[in-house]
Amino acid sequence: MAATEDSLRRALAEKQTAVDAQSEAVRALKARPGVSKDEIDAAVEILKALKVEHGAAAKRLQSAVSSNGDGSRKEAFPQAVANTLERRLFYIPSFKIYRGVAGLYDYGPPGCAVISTVLAFWRQHFVLEEKMLEMDCPCITPEIVLKASGHVDKFTDLLVKDEKTGTCYRADHLLKDYCKGKLEKDLTLSPDKAAEFKHVISVLDDLSAAELGAKLKEYDIRSPDTGNHISDPYPFNLMFRTSIGPSGMLSGYMRPETAQGIFVNFNYLYYYNGNKLPFAAAQVGQAFRNEISPRQGLLRAREFTLAEIEHFVDPEDKSHPKFVDVANLEFLMFPREEQLAGKSAKSMVLGEAVSKGTINNETLGYFIGRVYLFLTRLGIDKDRLRFRQHLQNEMAHYAADCWDAEIECSDGWIECVGIADRSDYDLRAHSEKSGVRLVANEKFSEPREVEKLVISPSKRELGLAFKGYQRMVVEALEAMSDEEALEMKEALDDKGEVDFQVCTLGKSVLMKKNMVSISMERKKEHQRVFTPSVIEPSFGIGRIIYCLLEHSFYTSKSEDEQLNVFRFPPLVAASTSIGKAYARTDKLGVAAAKRLQYAVSGNGDGCSKEVFRQAVVNTLERRLFYIPSFKIYSGVAGLYDYGPPGCVVKSNVLAFWHQHFVLEEGMVVMKCSCVTPEIVLKASGHVDKFTDLMVKDEKTGMCYRADHLLKDYCKGKLEKDLTLLPDKAAEFKHVISVLDDLSAEEIGAKLKEYDIRSPDTGNHISDPYPFNLMFQTSIGSSGMLPGYMRPETAQGIFVNFEELYNFNCEKLPFAAAQVGQAFRNEISPRQGLLRVREFTLAEIEHFVDPEDKSHPKFVDVANLEFLMFPREEQLAGKSAKSMVLGETVSKGTINNETLGYFIGRVYLFLTRLGIDKDSLRFRQHLPNEMAHYAADCWDAEIECSYGWIECVGIADRSAYDLQAHSEKSGVRLVANGKFSEPREVEKLVITPSKTELDLAFKGNQRMVVEALEAMSEKEALKMKEALDDKGEVDFQVYTLGKSVLLKKNMVSISMERKKEHQRVFTPSVIEPSFGIGRIIYCLFEHSFYTRPSQSEDEQLNVFCFAPLVAPIKCTVFPLIKSQQFDKVAKLLDESLTAAGISHILDATGTSIGKRYARTDELGVPFAITVDSTTSVTIRERDSKEQIRVSIEEVVSVVKALTDGQTTWADVLRR
């Protein structure tokens, strides 16, 4: 292509030279006396012919630079794809009714289905088949973590500003656009100049700020919007900054990648994996990049989904046992030698590329092969997929080798997957910054004598010198490298003291010689300690999906039109179900409920709530269900990581939620941005009202939630003060009961009356004042667009109502569902997973006609009977009681059938998960808890050791949300219902005069018109009265952010009699909102119990998870170390993997009893013991009963049990 373009440019230049010469000849002939007219006419004809040839050459060049090679325009194809994708709601710009935000996109129902299917296949292809561990870490990340990783200092792009308007642009984009524009549009460009522009594009990533600035000046490149001069380029950090906690003293960012959460948890993952290498940890989640000038749709967004794998390996052995499975794959590769030689990608055999050293090692090669298989099986065209090796100038200094899986689409070759050998850089960086050694070890067959540097901190002297900081100083000393330690020893020997940087303290301390001993000693070592290397495949899911959409798109002709078609492979197009049978024996539920009852009531076996809770939490953290985030950096309150088993429990809960609600109820699904512009949350009320009351320690500045201090004081007095008089006890109980109703002044008065002080220091505290609980950030590089991390997922659905209504063929009722992260900057987070700063919400917005809230399927749940707590019972001081759902709706206790239907469905969901029905109640909101606009609200509350915890809110929010966004955006969010016959009605008609408004407001005319048309009848009549009285009125246009002066000739407002064929109305919303973390924690408590060991000398912990929820469905144990049994176990391992059953193969020599106990503690429901070559035993966790099954049957039996197609009781009866 390049060679063709160059030759066409040369040909055009030659034609131009010929035209110029002939033009000069014609002018000379005309100027010369005595030349005949025929001679001149002949010369003119030659000139005309040359111009025709020049025009033809210009067209050929224009076609070459602006077409795909088949004559089609480059712009036409992506435009057709994008139009189809937006029209069919695969994805759309976020907050479209507010004019959108560049670089933020929402996935609509079909797009959500595609992304869900792609991620499900990714998990099967990598996580399950490669037996990877999974993590789920927070998006919010403290600055110290990203300082260690290098992102704070180096995660930048070069920015330039319009010197007059302040508009920001990415410097390299301006230069690249200029060069591409000249190449594509300037047909007079000489081959040399064209080569220069191509060279600039090719080296763009290597140019420094100074070099980039010089080129911008050389080409006189200006602001593309105004033509103004631009500033010199300077670096702009691409992370979204925020502040963690109310004090503002802990800086944080929204993570730019998911990997750091895995790196900081290496020690826990290594321990979980039995201290064995290699192993891989995987994570899927949102990442954030505050692009300077986002473009190219999903290919360059400010918020996107990453799927990353961190494969930890011994740096001295990067072989891979399964490399042979991919070694014969042949596909397009683009090694750096070919790039430097100006050649193209070529087909290469993977095994040969590794053996020749083109690819650095087998493990890197193995993942390149697995990525190739993943992408091509998804539907990516293998002829438009290449693996390009990074050039030296692209590689980080620490990287051993890096390759990108690039997919060709209409925007060129797009990097979609990076596969890098990152060496041991990341773990070393975090070890150094945190003072915690992130290392692995390899045991020697025999001890080795080595000379070793020994660092021996004197804990006594350090304790005297640094008191509470002693542990951090010790950890920092022990984490020193040999080089650092020898440097310290030299300084101490020379001067007797040295300044020592302790990163976890954020300062230097003065070390003296008596505080640490550093010496070289000969020691016998039994193991080698080393920092593992990391092989990292990182998948940009949005980029892969966009390329897949382009590769699957084509048009076919009908008789009179072009039809658009997406040719998805069945893998991507298919919907999946986890089945409708839910197996859980009554016996298991009773066992869990009994243990929980004893624990939370503090009777029976004498166990207190706190002891029970501590036993649960200790087990959960020890077995890595969840742990505090960034633990090696002393953690951050209110942030938690889900470890491998917790991750799978969460995934299983969400999969069942999707089955139970989305699939069975035929809901549409959305996936919206977490980053939200201020105007959206201003309309929803969050900017003004999403607050808690805070007090500060007047000396230290420590922050506390005012109502928590008051509640804790009252509860403490009630529980611990045995001398408390009945009147005083009644007073404290009353304060607790009305706490939510107290104003800031009333809470302040109570805090002073009881002389409540800082619980940490005893200092006086400030008066209470409101603190907004949203994490604030800034969108874009200018800093002029304030935004927040969403406090709930619902607003993304509300602002897309019009698109969803159209997608649903303008029919009501319908429901839209969304699962995603939400953020709440808690003042004083506590109670583990129950009150956190980042959490997963699953929300449903069911849109319904406010005049008809019946539900066709209500009869399916009407006979359910369970604990309810209506407001009348609460106000009368009574307890929750068992009630029949149908009766509560018919009596009006529950406002309407649709609300009642969802209450019933929530009950079924929770109990089928494993929540004890006797510890579940539905409590109606009291009048003082209800929003003024709400028709009715109920909370599904689950009892655990913390008391009754709200886990699901089910509310009839009326039409408030849609009306609020209609008013703020100027876009009417309404539905319509057709009448059987037209009706004559008197109606207020608002008729803006677009001509007059255009003269007055020019480019803002459309927004003024939309705001006028969105007025309520009350607002319009008020405006009419003012215009009739004064002839003009100030009118607030929210989308402009200001008021405008309207005159009488600009709008007509009148009451008219009209025939209406349909009723236009704002739908009501019924919203079930699920706090997934809270549900999971309560499920952990409800599933936990202890039982005596076989010898009865200790209590063993058990999680009695239903198979539906269990993180691991079964285990495979060879009874003894035997080659025959190991062979059978390996065969079962492969068969279970092929069947998609998560399992563990434990072939250690540990006793079978201990292996059972280990897996019972993880909640594994079934254990397969290989004790024969023809049959095995299957053991059920809670009853400990066993059955014998033939090897041919075992997988099908376990599959039926774990899918809920049969029960253990059914299997026993066989």
UniProtKB/TrEMBL annotation:
The keyword ATP-binding applies. One of its GO terms (cellular component) is mitochondrion. It is found in: Cytoplasm. It catalyses: tRNA(Gly) + glycine + ATP = glycyl-tRNA(Gly) + AMP + diphosphate. Its main location: cytoplasm. Its EC number is 6.1.1.14. The keyword ATP-binding applies. It is an enzyme of class 6 (ligase). GO terms for molecular function: ATP binding; glycine-tRNA ligase activity; transferase activity. Keywords: Aminoacyl-tRNA synthetase, ATP-binding, Cytoplasm, Ligase, Nucleotide-binding, Protein biosynthesis, Transferase. It comes from the Eukaryota. InterPro entries: aa-tRNA-synt_IIb (IPR002314), aa-tRNA-synth_II (IPR006195), aa-tRNA-synth_II/BPL/LPL (IPR045864), Anticodon-bd (IPR004154), Anticodon-bd_dom_sf (IPR036621), Gly-tRNA_synthase/POLG2 (IPR027031), GlyRS-like_core (IPR033731), tRNA-synt_gly (IPR002315). Residues 253-570, 735-1092 form the Aminoacyl-transfer RNA synthetases class-II family profile domain. GO terms for biological process: mitochondrial glycyl-tRNA aminoacylation. Residues 11-68 form the WHEP-TRS domain. Gene3D superfamilies: 3.30.40.230, 3.30.720.200, Anticodon-binding domain, Bira Bifunctional Protein, Domain 2, S15/NS1, RNA-binding. CDD domains: GlyRS-like_core (cd00774). SUPFAM superfamilies: Class II aaRS ABD-related, Class II aaRS and biotin synthetases. PANTHER family: GLYCINE--TRNA LIGASE, GLYCYL-TRNA SYNTHETASE/DNA POLYMERASE SUBUNIT GAMMA-2. Belongs to the class-II aminoacyl-tRNA synthetase family. Homodimer. This is glycine--tRNA ligase. It comes from Phoenix dactylifera.
